[in-house]
Amino acid sequence: MTSPNSYGSTAGVANLVPRWAGTAGDFTPATRPTIVYVESLIDSVSAMLNAMLAEAGFTVPVTAQTAVLVLDLFVNEEVAAICDGINGSGRFGPTTKNGGGKGRFALLLDDVKNFVTGQAVGFERLGAVRAYSITSGIGYRSTDERGNAVAPIFQRDAFANVFQDWDHA
Fold first, then answer.
1. What is the pLDDT of residues 9-42, one digit of tens each?
2. N or C, which end of the chain has less CB nearby within 10 Å?
3. Any idea where the domains of the chain sit in the sequence?
């Protein structure tokens, strides 16, 4: 049984790599990898994904239905690739030349990072809760607590780069 914070499913992985699943179309204690190990991989890849989503400011686990469908597919694809590697083939296999000498974990981490970075705005637009953004905390107040005008910390004229304000000339 996978964690409630995980995405994907053993059946979803089995559909992508049916040659490694049992005759019933799912992983079992007798398949390579076993169902327990596939569940562990789903949890591990999902945890990496949740860590990267949290770093990008999302509340995890993501619960927006359409975004979850995308996350499910990503986890299923990554775990299927790992299953291929366990059986000696695919991009995580022992003879792969991809990744410029990177280990399997580094390749997986790159996949997760590139995926989250590339989809962050889309997830937000699909309804995933994003409570924090890289730009949060950057702000400017034009007045202090008493209502007095304050000058910005950095001003153009502070660097001898003065421009004419045509609105107030």
1. 999 999 999 999 988 999 999 999 999 999 999 9
2. C
3. 10-125
